[in-house]
Amino acid sequence: MWDATWESIFQAREWGQYPGEDVVRFIARNYYGVPNRAAVKVLEVGSGVGANLWFLAREGFSFSGIEGSPTAVARTVARLDREVPGWKGNGSEVRVGDCLSLPYANDSFDAVLDIGAISCNSFEDSQRIYAELLRVAKPGGMLFSRVVAGGSWGDGTGVPAGRRAFVNCTEGTVAGMGLIRFTDERDVDDLLGSWKRMAIERSIWTEGDRNHEVRQLNIFASKS
Amino acid sequence: MSWDPVWEKIFREQAWGKYPGEELIRFVARNFYAAPDRSAVRILEVGCGPGANLWFLAREGFAFAGIDGSSTAIAKAEKRLDDECPGWRSFGELRVGDMGNLPFGDAEFDAVIDNEAVCCNPWDASKAIYAEMARVTKPAGRIFSRTFADGTWGEGTGKSAGHHAWFCEDGPMAGKGFARFTTLDEIPVLIAGFDVRSVELLTWTLEGRRHEIREWVILGEKPAGTGPTS
Question: Does residue B229 have a pLDDT over 90?
């Protein structure tokens, strides 16, 4: 379920405008070499203000974005209109909606991206979102999911909210961001359900002159 | 000469990164996004390659200069800026040149950036490059340096090339000529012209956690009240 905290976050902040390095790497490695990029369809759930969609548009891919915050979707569309004229040409679209019930047909996407969005959902909702992503991915399609990892700065602070989740962590990069669920490696299979797990990579960066660690897992899977 | 010609070949043949790294964006955002007049903030990148970071600086309205040893890289940067940032020449410049002998005056820049370029140079040359970067930085100006840390995949493979340096056979620097890896305690010595304010460590794995890349993100400030160093 989408947390309304994010509406105020997106209203207040100048959020990230550029794609993550690992997103660029994932797309480059898997799809830069295809003969016709416009035929590659990518879905991002929780697309925020659209930094990754903007990147996909610039690089000539087709995409869909779904995001709970109307403010974030409006900013995404405004930026695409301004900077990538004709971006809707290949059927690309961005909409306000709920990741728990994706408004797309089965077997629609070559790749599905979750860049920190599913981590804002309870364990049970997260399982449902991964299952929805599996449904809308094409056979052979790929999942890249970047999640907040257990032990990341802020884990265990705030109000406990179910399995490995806390509301309004009081510390770290996740402080005050509503519900945050921390993913432990042993829980990945349970979350992914019928996705075929390909690789898990770890990414850690420090903050505060190496006093804190922000931890992520990058999960790669395919629909067999 | 602090530049390895192998990079000319790399820039000619490889489709290089076109987008700026998150750490650099965060550095520029935290320090300069709130500046009342961004065009009055002037930033230098040494070893700018085909200009992903300069493109970002140009898009965000900052004045910039970039220098690289590879004429191919500079030509690519120039083409991209021409295509996407018309008018960039009124607030930006590109040079083919040597990082160890920067063609800029003392105290010209508000910030200087090294995105894994200095680490392609031996220890003494690297010290000299950082000293040159300090020279061209204004008092109280900033440095951002992202550089490979000891323990990175590939360190210790291939042919030894002096102080913590190899012509690596494995890892992200394999086939890219000279690579120097920096230890934590070396940082203040290496970057003597700046007060080091923070050193963060990025670690990330590849190939299903079989390999690990380790990078320092070093932020520093040129002491205020220090005059030109030459």
Answer: no
B201 within 8 A of B214, measured Cβ to Cβ: yes
- Element holding B55 (H helix, E strand): helix B52-59
pLDDT at residue B16 in the model? 56
Residue of B nearest to A54 (CA): B19
Q: How far apart (Å, rounded) are the C-alpha atoms in residues A206 and B199?
A: 9
Q: Which segments of chain A have a pLDDT < 50? A: none
Partner residue opposite B202 with nearest CB, options A18, A55, A205: A205
In CATH, what number does A5-148+185-222 get? 3.40.50.150
Beta bridge partners of A199: A220
With an 8 Å Cβ cutoff, are B22 and A199 in contact?
no
Q: Which of B202, B209, B217 sits opposite A200 (nearest CB)?
A: B209
Q: Which two tokens stand for residue B148?
A: 């490979």
Across the beta sheet with B159-160, the strand order is B159-160, B165-167, B178-180
- CATH topology (fold) of B6-148+184-221: Rossmann fold (3.40.50)
Q: What is the structure's pLDDT at A17?
A: 87
> Residue B203 has which token pair?
């670690």
Chain A residue numbers with beta carbons less than 8 Å from the beta carbon of B23 are 205
Token pair in block for residue A131: 């299952």
B204 close to B152: Cβ distance less than 8 angstroms: no
Angle at B90 between CA B85 and CA B91, to 5 degrees: 80
Residue found under tokens 């695409």: A80
Q: Considering the entire predicted model, what is its pTM?
A: 0.93
Q: CB-based contacts of A90: which residues, under 8 Å, 6+ apart?
A: A38, A62
Instruction: Report the alpha-carbon distance of residue B178 to residue B1 in Å, rounded.
Output: 13
Enter the ipTM: 0.91
CA distance A68 to A4: 8
**Helical residues (DSSP H) of A107-216, grouped into ranges:** 123-136, 188-192
Q: Which two tokens stand for residue A186?
A: 């042993």
The helix (run of H) or strand (run of E) holding residue B134 is helix B123-136
| Domain locations along chain B | 6-148+184-221
Q: What is the pLDDT of residues B174-189, one digit of tens each?
A: 888 899 999 999 999 9
Contacts of B17 (CB under 8 A, 6+ apart): A24, B52
DSSP state of A100: T
- Residue B5 confidence (pLDDT): 74
Alpha-carbon distance of A144 to A95, in angstroms, equals 20
Secondary structure of chain B: what % helix, strand, coil (to 5)? Answer: 30, 30, 40
